[in-house]
Structures are given as C-alpha cells and as structure tokens.
Amino acid sequence: MHIARTGLGVAAATVVAALAVSVPGTAAPAAVPHTLAVPAVAGHTLVHGVSSPLTSEQCQAKWHINCYTPLQYRTAYDLNALYRKGVTGKGRTIVIVDSYGSPTVQHDLDVYSKQFGLPSTKVKVVKWGHVPAFDPKNADMTGWAGETTLDVEMAHAVAPAAKIVVVETAVSETEGTTGLPEMMDAEKYLIDHNVGDVISQSFGATENTFPGFGKGDFSSIKKLRYAFQDANRKHVTVLAASGDGGATDMKLDGKTYYDKRVNSWPSSDPLVTSIGGTQLHLNDKGERVKPDSVYNDYGAGGGGQSHVFTRPSFQNGVKSKVGSRRGTPDISMSAAVNGGAWIYSSYDPTAVGWDVSGGTSEATPLFAGIVALADQAAGHRVGNIQQALYGLYAHHAKANGIVDVNDGTNNSYQGVTGYKAVNGYDLATGVGTVDALKFVPALAKASRHG
C-alpha cells in the first residue's frame, strides 16, 4: 500500500532512468486473456511530500502512525551482522516488474541512500515495448511510479550491494488491457537472457475476475504461467505480493471488494512464493517493543485458499490449515501503514519529498532483498524456494530463522472474515517472518541448485 499523494490511488511498479533498453514486445501465447492487473496497493493520503523523515514519536504526534527507516528495519530483521560478514547481495540481481515507470527513480534512490548513509546502486531500466512518455498528471502513471519507487528503495534497503533491474511494460489504460501478458512476456525474456536471480512482483488480479472462472474453466490463468515455468527451470526465484485485501480482494472494476473469501494471482500460483504482511512494533533503534502482528489497518495482508490451484506437495505438512487447496501467503514481512517505510520520490513535481508507504507491495521487495542475500551466501541462485522454505519451517524453524507470528490478530477486511495469526502456519502470515541472520544461511544451505 502506498500512502498516495492524491486520495485513493494505485501504486505498484518498477522503473529506473539509467540504462534504458528498449525491447520489442513479443507476442504472448495464443488466447492469453487480458484481465485487470491491479497493483498490490490501496492508497490513502496520510503522509506526502514531507521535507525530511520524522521519528516515530513525531509521526505518532502528527499522523497517529509509526514510521520506520531502513536502519530500523536492519535491526528488526537482524541484518547488520550479515553485512559485517560481507553478505550484502553483491553479485546478485533483483528484477522488479511493473507498468510505465518513474523518470526519477535513480535520483530518488540516490537521495534515499544518502539520507540514511547507505551506498547507492545503479538501477537499470528495461523498457518492454513502446512505453509512453511519463505524464505526472496521469493518476495511473503516478500510481505505478509510486510503487516503482517503493519497490526499488525497499529492495535496496535489505540488499544494498545487489543490482536492480526495473522492467517497464507499455500498457496504456486506454487500451483496456490488463498488462499481465506483457508482464509475463517481459519476465520470460529476462529469464531466457539470464538477467536476474529473483523477480519481485507487486501486482495481482483476483482469480475470480479471469475469463471462464465462473464456469470452472481456469485455462485463462494457466496460459499465463509460462514465465514462472521458465523461472522454475532456470532456478530463478519468483515472488508476488499476497495483496492488501485480507481474505477478500477487488472485483473487476478495481474499486469494490467481493463479499466472500477470494484469492489473487500470481500470488496463488504454486510456482510463486507469496509474500504476506505484518505490522512491526519498534522503538527508534529498531528493536521490537512487542511481537509482530498481522498487517490490518489501511489494508490487510492477503491470504487464504486458492480456488484455482490444489494443494502443492510442499504444503502437505500444513494441510490441516490449507485443506485441499494452495494456501497463501508463504511468508511475511513488514507491510502495515502504521509502521510504514519512509520513501523519497520526485516524479510528481507538485509533491517532491518524503512519503510513508506500506502494503504487501512493500513486503515483497523487502523479501526479494533477503533472497538476494541468500543467493550470495549460497554462491548460486536458491531458485524456487518453496520446498526449502517449508522444510526449514518443519524442522527447527526457530533455529532456521523462521519467526512465528501468533498474536491472534487477523486479516479480516471489508466485512469478510479472515484468518488469525496462531501458532505455526496460518493463512494470515504463512510460516511467519524472518530473523535474517539465521534464515539467510539456512535458506542458502537448504537450496541445492547450482
């Protein structure tokens, strides 16, 4: 969730103004549907265009929310000891995929990094197809630009030495297309050309909105899986935000919610690691003042059973929770707006400065950074992490850096009853969250792909 500059807004993208590579879009496989792709975001104007980041105490006084810096996250997720050992994501590449882009991402990342004393990194931009010129008065474009900024800065905050590639897809809102085929084409192209070790996706479409769903025909979704199948073969890790609608999600109009439990794709795909949301409770040093809760404020962490995919083998150990269906999320990171992240942006000339952002579209690039660290620690791509993740959870979870979220909070949202955070796996936070100092080497060791 991006705390947007202007009322309700969408945000979820990734872009950069560095190396602009224009790639002609190749045709998707025949009969691939064009369904509405919604960024994993729902915006509220709470904090925007602030001249400099404030402390949590100041944020509480001014907006009644906590707001965190990357330095607090580094303490909260036990990252500093890894950095001291040289595990920084060096030599690894995070790919962020979204529509349009932001013309100021490199500049904004540089300002963000300097503010917090971090080394910056060069963001490379791949333009997939004929991306239209950025228009700061176009709410769709600024929404995606906001997510672009969030994704890049969060991934960099966790894996400061990793390379970042932003893929801009060229889908105009006037065409009435969803963008999903273009996104999958772009991902497959990069995978085939050996660009990127982990792909971060902060977008999704409710399963129920795909053509044929109501008749039990799921071919429209299954025809879009070619990029993930390719990633699985090439040992590229694929992540997706579980969404900000709790146990429900948006209808095709992108404005109203279903009044029943639904799930969204690509998060629900068994070839994808679904990233849910938590709320962190930190002091100014980044130390926890109480355990993590489920993200549930200006949105709620997505989670529940897929209506398209049956339970994959890696979830057999949690079948009492997921039943016969694929369950999401798999694991969770910080996403609450009350506990959101400071982000710097300048793509909108009327609101240059610091915002506070949250949502599973924050959690996903944070975890992409964790994967990049594990790739470096392993000396190779950890690839599809599902089997390894659930194996680490099943055997000595705490020693493996998997931290249970079990405080009884839930992801009920928009009147639809969700799921509670209980002991062990649940459909609110998955296996929980991470202590990176333990989790990164454990994941590296558990992954067998060379």
Commentary on this structure:
The chain has helices at residues 56-63, 70-76, 80-84, 105-115, 139-158, 180-192, 219-222, 226-234, 319-322, 360-378, 386-394, 436-446, and strands spanning 19-23, 38-39, 67-68, 93-99, 123-128, 163-169, 198-201, 203-206, 237-241, 264-265, 273-279, 293-294, 304-310, 325-328, 331-334, 340-345, 353-357, 402-403, 433-434. It is 27% helix and 18% strand. Mean pLDDT is 88; it is low at 1-36, 38-45 and 172-177. The two termini are 36 Å apart. With 450 residues, the chain is an alpha/beta fold. Strands 1, 4, 5, 6, 7, 9, 11, 12 and 15 form a nine-stranded mixed β-sheet that branches. Strands 2-8-10 form a three-stranded antiparallel β-sheet, with no helix packed on it. It has twelve helices and 19 strands.
Shape: globular
Quickly count the helices. 12
Structural class: alpha/beta
Q: Work out the helicity level.
A: 25-40%
Report the portion of residues in β strands.
15-25%
Average pLDDT, to the nearest integer? 88
**What's the main sheet like?**
9 strands, mixed
Uncertain spans: 1-36, 38-45, 172-177
How many beta-strand elements?
A: 19
What's the end-to-end separation, in Å?
A: 36 Å
Using the CA coordinates, give the radius of gyration: 19 Å
